[in-house]
Amino acid sequence: MSLQLAQLSSLDLVRGFVAVGRRMSITLAAQDLCLTQSAVSRQIHALEAQLGVKLLVRGYRSIAFTPEGERLFRSADGAIQQLQDVMGELRTSGALRPVTVTASIGFIGLWLLPRLSRFQQLHPDVDIRVSASNQISDLRNEGIDLAIRYTSADLAPPGSRRLLGDAVAPVAHPSLGIELRSAAEIPNLTLLDFDDPRYPQLQWGEWLAAKGWGETKPRAFLRFNQYDLVIQAALAGQGVALGRLELIRPLIDEGRLAVIGPPEGDSVSHAYWLIRAEERPRPEVLSVATWIEAEAREGR
C-alpha cells in the first residue's frame, strides 16, 4: 500500500540513509554530506522511528542492512540518483560545465599535460578539469566525464576506446652516453625503479630476469612510488629507467631521453583505454574524447 505524499519521510532522512548505504559507513557518509557523524546517526534513527523498522545493524566498526533496509536502499538509491542527475543538469542553467578528465598521476604528467595547450587552441570555449588519481573512481557519482585507465580488454567497460599500448625499453639522458647491450654494463649503472608490484613490467628485477641477467647487480637502485618521478629522475641524468615509450615519445623525439636498449613487445593484454561516463556525452565532452583519441593515434 502506497503512502500519501504528506506521509512520506523527509528527503533529508532518505538522503542520509542512502549516503550511509552507498558507503556502508556513517563516517564516510558524514563526509559526503558535510555533516557530523552524530547528525547522520540521528537521521537514520529518525527514519527508523518513522517507519517502525530497523534498517541497519550496527556492529563493531561495521554496518549491515536488515532485510527491510536492503529493500528500501534498492529503491531509494535509484530515486536519489535520478534526482542527482536531473538536478545537476538543471543547476547549470544552460552554462557550460568543465569537462572532467581523470587518469593516473603518471599518465597526466607525462602524456596529457604536455598536450593540453593544443586542445585549448582548437577549442578555446571548452574548459577542462584534470583529476589526477591512481584510484578507481565511480565516474557518475564523482562527476567525472572521461577516464583514462590502464587495464585489459576484457575488463574495460563496454564502449571504451583503446588509446595506447605499453611497449617498454631502457631510457636515459643522452649525456650519459649509455648503451645497454649486455649484462656487463649493469654493474656500472644506477637503475631507476618503479616501486609498485602491480606493474612488474616496469620493475628492473623482472626485466633483468627476463633477459637472463637476474644475477647481475647494478651499482645502485633508486626507487620511486610514482612513475612520473622515475622519468623525472632519468631526465635529470640520475640513472636508467624503464620507459613506457608511448607515454614519453615527445621526450625521446626532442632528444631529452634516449632509448638505450631494445624495447620489449607491446602488451596485447593491457593498454590505456578511454572510458566515457555516459553513452551519449555532452558535445563538449565528445570534443575532448575525440581530441584525446586523435592525439593517441598521432603518437603511435
Automatic annotation (TrEMBL):
GO MF annotation: an example: DNA-binding transcription factor activity
The entry's keywords: DNA-binding, Transcription, Transcription regulation
GO biological process, one term: DNA-templated transcription
Domain HTH lysR-type: from-to ranges: 17-66
InterPro entries recorded: LysR-type_TF_proteobact-type, LysR_HTH_N, LysR_subst-bd, WH-like_DNA-bd_sf, WH_DNA-bd_sf
Family statement: Belongs to the LysR transcriptional regulatory family.
PANTHER family linked: HTH-TYPE TRANSCRIPTIONAL REGULATOR, HTH-TYPE TRANSCRIPTIONAL REGULATOR TRPI
Protein's name in the database: HTH-type transcriptional regulator PerR
